[in-house]
Amino acid sequence: MNSKSDLRIGIAGLGAIGQQVARALDQGVPGCRLVAASARNQDKAASFLSTLDSKVALVKVEQLADYADIVVECAPAELLPAILKPVIGAGKKAVVLSIGALLEHMDLVDRCRETGAQIMVPTGALIGLDAVSAAAEGTIHSVRMISRKPPKGLQGAPFLVENNIDISDLKEPLTLYEGSARGAAKGFPANLNVAIALSLAGIGPDRTELQVWADPRVTRNTHTIEVDSDSASFTMTIENIPSENPKTGRITAKSVIALLRKMSAPLRVGT
Question: Which comes out higher in pLDDT, residue 216 or 5?
């Protein structure tokens, strides 16, 4: 049952992730209520929203902040500034999944300091961000991440297009990229937001090392992180089952839902 004290949630983008988040909120997340959504394809969005029990306003992206206390961004990376600016200007909160795009717009973080707004990045498809954040309170010596994805989850990435790399009929694992997380954000904007989240939790996008593989032998998006610090050294691996969108794991939407659930929970576990 909805309460007047519930946090009002708006969703920007109703693709695979946005729809999963919307369904979960519609089914009930204590302390939260879905009130608004925006999408490029208005007809398709309206059709989807009609299947929900919640009464959800379909509005323009710049209007979400008028309806919601928290706006969840589940949209293409290039739309991030348009989504965030009204939210930040209103001093509200935003949950951001296109974290790689944020590197090009860090002025938005500065603007949050002025308005009292907050940008929240869910754990998403990566484990261990709590441990990395804790280690960053001391000294982290190095962070390395190795990502392996099925080729179809990487097809169309700007890095492949710019370098004329064809992975459509790949038979063996192929190293596509080795370098900084910042470089990966530009080359794989829809594929490696996890690397940017890792870098911002730790030692930054320029010092965080990344290796990207297209691997026809794997069926899951696999990430291994290796961290060496003055408080702990640890290695962690996660294998994410792809969602309807092969670029994104199923756990990404569930991570957003878990974050929203924590907002009003009487007990919060994790940093």
Answer: 216
Position 1 scores a pLDDT of 53
Specify whether 223 is catalytic.
yes
Residue in 148, 182, 223, 250 annotated catalytic = 223
Kindly list the structural domains of the chain, giving each domain's residue range(s) and its CATH number in brackets, ordered by start. Answer: 7-125+251-263 (3.40.50.720), 129-248 (3.30.360.10)
pLDDT at 110 over 60: yes
Nearest to 32 by CA among 269, 264, 266: 264
Asked if pLDDT for residue 217 goes beyond 80, the answer is: yes
Indicate the pTM of the whole model: 0.90
* pLDDT tens digits for range 29-54: 999 999 999 999 999 999 999 999 99
Q: What percent of the chain has pLDDT above 90?
A: 84
